[in-house]
Amino acid sequence: MPYLIAVVALVGALCLVDLVLTLGVVRRLREHTKLLDALFEAVDMMGGPLGGGRQLSPGDVAGDFEATTVDGTRLTRDLLPDGTVVAFLSPDCSGCHEKLPAFASWSAGQDRSRVLAVIDNRSGEPAEMVTTLQPVAQVIVDSAVSDAFGVQSFPTFLQVATGGKLLAVAPDISRLPAESPA
């Protein structure tokens, strides 16, 4: 009997130590999340990761553009519905390929007319991205739209109000404040 009590006490002590360590890890992860958010904001204020220009920020208005989706629909800045989420992706961007399934999954639950995927055509083969996104989003394969929005890094996710005014800019769809524009 004394051995059983000792074993139970030891297991209980180990569980307590494990709980304390787990709470410490959670606390550190929260600190890292705050640091990463601050880093994203600092990079955005410098005009993107290269610091070579100015990426548009919330409140700015995107430049004019005219493009045609892969379905043949003509789109301009002024034709985007209020709350449209625009994703800028590049075929040769590994981060874009990592985020593509989550974006496609998110888009499947949205109004297709309010989700626009712009695939930069300056490098790589966009066919895989087009095939994945076409059923759930309007897809444009063009670099001029990226230029109109001042996009300097991929992936970039924006939420746009009527008239092309940017409501939010984020490097991930989960970081947009209003994940459901519809």
TrEMBL record:
Protein name: Thioredoxin domain-containing protein
Gene3D superfamilies: Glutaredoxin (3.40.30.10)
UniProt xrefs under InterPro entries: Thioredoxin-like_sf (IPR036249), Thioredoxin_domain (IPR013766)
Species: Nonomuraea helvata
Chain ranges of the Thioredoxin domain: 56-182
SUPFAM superfamilies reported in the protein's UniProt record: Thioredoxin-like
